[in-house]
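dumping this here before i forget
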Amino acid sequence: METTLGTPTASAITFFFLIVALTLAVTYWAARRTRSTREFYAAGRSVSALQNGFALAGDYMSAASFLGIAGLVALRGYDGMIYATGWLVGWPALMFLVAEPLRNLGKYTFADVVAYRLRQTPVRIASAIGGILTVLFYTIAQMVGSGNLIMLMFGLSYEISVVLVGATMLAYVLFGGMIATTWVQIIKAVLLLAGVSLLTGLVLAEFQFSPGALYAAVVEQYGQAALEPGGLVTNPLDAVSLGLALMLGVLGLPHILMRFYTVPDARAARLSVLYATGLIGYFYIIIPLVGFGAAALVGRDVIAGIDAGGNMAAPLVAEQLGGTPFLGFIAAVAFATILAVVAGLTLAGASALSHDIYVSVVKKGQATEREQVRVARWATVVFGALAVLLGVVFKGQNVAFMVGLAFAIACSANFPALLLSIVWRRFTTAAAVASILSGATLAVGLIVLSPTVWVDVLGYPSALFGLRNPAIVSMTVAFLVGIGVSLATREPRAATMFDEEKLRTYLGVGAE
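structure:
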């Protein structure tokens, strides 16, 4: 098929600048309302449940979801749907296990909850390490997706595209903080849901609105194997490990967890997860249809020829069905998606550096509002520069696959310590630190030794660790270490404060 990807078009440029102008206007409006740390980190706790539901959905429906899943389904068939399913099923657990304790116990980061009845300094340092590693890996995927998109939209080099995205994202976070990030997420969620709904409708219209006819066309071109497991994950143990990471990783994602601090109370936190689950569920049901439609209508060879990871499958089928103007709209929506998610991730990374490390550990909580906001903004710049650098290094990877690795770190480093601190009286400071550090280092170490980095990036003939996703090993070890160290150590103060913690979790007494 003939495509304009790689050549700047009037429609692509128009939609691109319209969306950037709209989101920058929101940032300017938000910047005038961002003065204190409470406003910078938590939007002044003034976000309603419905608004936060859309913002959570916007944060979660990232480039990995839109570009990555469509690409994986187009190139690998059925196995791409593992990501869509896995990313959805963790949300009920988030609503019932974590939403209420987070809102009632925490202030700005998930470390506030883990450290509530434990010793602050060691827990906050360990939590910051786990949080930053998770956010960095998640950010890499978004930067790779954005670099590819801008490169193909405007004919720029990949490296310049990544730098441009990093600079725009920094403008959102530096000046608007959480207020701007929240509203950019809401705008992006509405645009993304509308764009993907329209694209799905156009795909189904080609097959008389019959998903069965669409699947039959895929089978006709690529055989029955396209609708059966094994196209991407051939090792059953790897499939289980990936499923665990996708399901439980959401309970350890710092940029999702900190959204619960933007609402006024625990009821609003639970309601916002309910709204988000509905929006996200709808999105993950229809996005595989776009991927199968791209395989049937555009063809796997064309998709892989444009981008080896398949990330351009959705824009390509948009161009085929709606022409260059629709491609411009879809590409601009994808760009807004990436910018919004990277902004949220950057804010979470900066919060860990400034709130957990600088204010709580270095200054022992004795920092002025002005000083905290200044440090948070410098932390944002440092984190943004790291994101650009890593985005360049990991060029060419499929973005959904990269986010799967971030989920493995999240469910290994953050989730075990967070859950045990909420539900187990015997949990101690030493156990929290050991669990977070063992989960984080093991997950990252095994990813480096896995085929993903050892073979695909470093070029060695075979990997030292066989699984592509390490969650089944690293998360299990993190839980065992947390339980074992708790049984081997005693912390009477932490055990005594457990009842107070439960009371505050249930009633919200003393919550800000």
